[in-house]
Amino acid sequence: MIKLPYFNSYLYKKVLHFEWALLILCGIAEAMAWRFAPPDPTAPNLKVSFILLIIVGAISFVRPYKGTYYDRLCYLFLELIVIAGATSAGLARFLFPLFVVVIAKACLLLDRKGLLIVGLAAFVCQMTYASFKISIQNPHLLDHGFTPLALVNLIGGALIFTYVAVAMMILVAMLTLSLLSEQTSRLETERLSQEVQNLATELERTRIAREIHDTLGHTLTSLNIQLEIARKLHQRNPEKSTDALETAKQLASQSLTDVRMAIQSIRNASDFNFEDSVHSLVTDIKQNQQSMDVMVKIDVHELPASVGFQLFRVIQECLTNVLKHANASEVRIQLEQSGEKLQLNVSDNGRGMQTEHSHTGFGIRGIQERIESMNGTVAITAQPNKGTNINVLIPIKPAESATTQA
Known about the structure:
The chain contains ten helices and five strands. By secondary structure, it is α+β, with helices and mostly antiparallel strands. The longest helix is centred in the middle third of the chain and has 85 residues, at 148-232.
C-alpha cells in the first residue's frame, strides 16, 4: 500500500462539488437532448446515458481515500468505465468534462505513476469513442478493412476530435498538482515550524537546567560541606561549629544570588568577565575548603564574552565535581591559547573518576554540551587514587582574538 504524504480533504471536496455541478448540468442537457435534439446515429440511447449519469453520481459519494491504493485505482477505473459508457450512449459534448474530474481525483488520490495510468486510460476512452463516432459518420472509411491508411485517418481524426478534451485533462492535472504541491508545502512548513519550535523549547529547557545546575550545584555543594562540618563539630568544638553555620548561612544567601545571576545570564551574558569570575570562584572555594589548594593559570588573549561564559561554567562544574567526589588536596586549572585553539586543562590529585560512568552524570553531560556548542572536544582521563584530568580543546576564529593581553 502506497501512502500519500498528505491527503488534502479540502481540495477533494472542491472537486466533488464541481463533479456534482457537472452531473446536474449534464443531466439537464441529456434530458433536453432527449426531448428536443434530432436523432443522432452516434448517440444510440440517451436513456442509457442518463441512467449511467445517475450511477456516476452515486459513485461520487464513495470515499476511496479511506481504502488502499489498489482500492483507489479500482474506484477511478470504475468511474472511467461508467463515464465512457455514458459517453458512448449519449451526446459526448456534454460529458467530456467528467473525464477531467476523474483526472483531478487521480491527482489527489494516487501518486504520479497512478496518475499516468489513469490519464492513459481516460485518453484511450476518449480515442475509442472518437474513433467509433468517426467510423459511423464515415461508413466508407473502413470499406477495405483496417488498412494502414484507414488506421492513420481514423487515429488522426480521433486526435483532432479529442484534442480539446485531452488538453483540458492535461491543464487540469497541472493545475491540481500545483495546488496540491502548494498545500503540501504549506503543511510541511507548518510541521517543520512546529518541530523547530519544539526543538527550540527543549534546547532552552536544557540550557536553563544546565545554568541552574552549574550555578546552584557549586554553592549547594559548599553549603552541604559546611553543614556537615557543623554537625560533626557540634559537640567537640562549638566555636568552629558556629563558624561553619555562619558560613553555611552566607552560602544560602549566595544561592539566592546564584539564582538571580543564572536568570540574568540566560537573558544576557555580553558583559561577563571571565578572569574576574574564575578568580572569584577560586577565592570562594579556598575560603570554604581550606584543605584544598586551587592553582590557576590563564594565558589567553581577551575572550569573547560568550566563549568566556561557557568556559567559566565548565570550570565551575569541574570544581564542583572535585568537591563532591574527588577528595583532592590540589587542583590545577590552566587555560592557554595556541594559534586558533583554546586549551583548558583541569586536573586534581584525588581518588580518580570512574571513566565508565563519566558520560552519564548531568554535570559531565552539561560540560560536553557546552563544549560541543562551540565545536570543541572533551577528553577525560583518570587513574585510581591518582586523580582526574579533563582536557578541553576549542577552535576560535581569528576575528575573535584581540591583541590585548588579559
